[in-house]
Design brief:
Strand order of the largest sheet: 3-2-1-4-5-6
Number of strands: 14
Helix content: 40-55%
Structural class: alpha/beta
Largest sheet: 6 strands, parallel
Bound molecules: nicotinamide-adenine-dinucleotide
Shape: globular
Number of helices: 10
């Protein structure tokens, strides 16, 4: 991959996720300039210096620490600022704390880079995406969150392992909240267009309800199990963020399960949650209303209700 015209990408929050994202972006060659901003400016400087020394082994990229005014001219701004999830803490517990950070950051982005696409990774990502849409005042399709991009990747990986098929050949989505109420869409998961039940029976396999429950449990608890062992997760989400940014700056119209402000489908509105969406240079081009079965629809509506109550629990602006 080569970068044909200059592409500036800024990342706010130079912690585990932000720095790993910047590293992935540097190796990808998607950006020609990366700006890192952090409340702890010297941390951003240290990361930018270290990453800068990787450039001779990677792609020509200018990388530096910056201030809010350096956001100007960014094609995409990625927000990873804020506290991480502690062991045993739910993502929604983080909401009150991180809403202040994300609200402030979103206002800065709107003021200094109003034509950027704003991508939120800070948890709880669906609630923080809602905060970013409200606080930035930017058009809703231009602000979205990494949502269940990672859960969807994990779903495909788990199915790939189970069926011995490259996960890239599997279409399957996790929708709703990035968190405990997320919904795996089993009814539409397919391998080359063959639904899982059809595929299993064609090859004499059995996919029981217990198998499915076990696989979903692996996906739903993946972050907790990693955090228990190493304190944070960052490689996979950073890779997902690089993929999102690539879809935006190269206007790829890629289907990604990202979190956006939902207005209507399934009778849900006024919350941000993940559904497959077409992502390109203008942000969310279209949200795809999947034909869910009844239990999935019920689960998605419950997930929306969980998120609505988290939004209602935020301190007033
Ligand atoms: N969406 C996902 O799938 C996903 C996955 C992993 C982590 N996360 C989330 O990403 C966030 C960051 O995680 P991390 O492990 O990188 O945390 P971290 O503590 O390593 O880094 C957070 C950084 O944000 C900075 N910061 C805090 N307030 C700021 C502000 N107002 N302006 C600028 N910078 C500010 C801190 O100084 C710190 O450097 C957390 O909320 C975490 O839960 C999301």
């Amino acid at each position: 991959m080569t970068t044909s015209s200059p592409v500036k990408v800024s990342v706010i929050g130079a912690g585990h996720v932000g720095a790993t994202f910047a590293y992935g972006l540097l190796l990808s060659g998607v950006a020609s300039e990366i700006v890192m901003i952090d409340l702890d400016h010297s941390r951003a400087e240290g990361e930018a210096m270290d990453l800068g020394h990787a450039v001779p082994f990677g792609r020509p990229t200018r990388i530096r620490a910056g201030e809010w005014t350096d956001l100007e001219g960014s094609s995409a701004v990625v927000v990873t600022a804020g506290a991480g999830q502690r062991p045993g803490q739910t993502r929604l517990d983080l909401a009150r704390r991180n809403a202040l950070v994300v609200g402030d950051v979103a206002a800065q982005v709107a003021s200094h880079a109003p034509s950027a696409i704003l991508i939120v990774a800070t948890n709880p990502v669906d609630v923080m995406t809602f905060v970013a849409v409200s606080a930035s005042g930017l058009a809703a399709p231009r602000v979205f969150g990494s949502g269940t991009i990672l859960d969807t990747a994990r779903f495909r990986a788990v199915l790939g392992d189970r069926f011995g098929v490259d996960p890239r050949s599997i279409h399957a989505h996790v929708i709703g909240e990035h968190g405990d109420s997320e919904v795996p869409v089993w009814s539409l998961a397919n391998i080359a267009g063959m639904r899982l039940a059809e595929y299993s029976s064609a090859f004499g396999e059995v996919l029981s309800q217990d198998d499915m429950a076990g696989m979903f449990e692996q996906i739903r608890t993946a972050a907790d199990r990693i955090i228990e062992r190493k304190g944070a997760t960052y490689y996979a989400v950073a890779s997902g963020l690089v993929r999102i940014v690539e879809a935006v700056v190269r206007d790829q119209s890629t289907v990604l399960t990202v979190s956006s402000l939902i207005d209507g489908p399934y009778g849900i509105s006024g919350v941000c949650l993940s559904l497959p969406a077409i992502v390109g240079a203008e942000g969310i081009q279209r949200v795809l209303p999947l034909s869910l079965d009844e239990s999935e629809l019920r689960a998605l509506r419950s997930s929306a209700a969980v998120l609505r109550s988290a939004i209602e629990g935020l301190p007033p602006k």
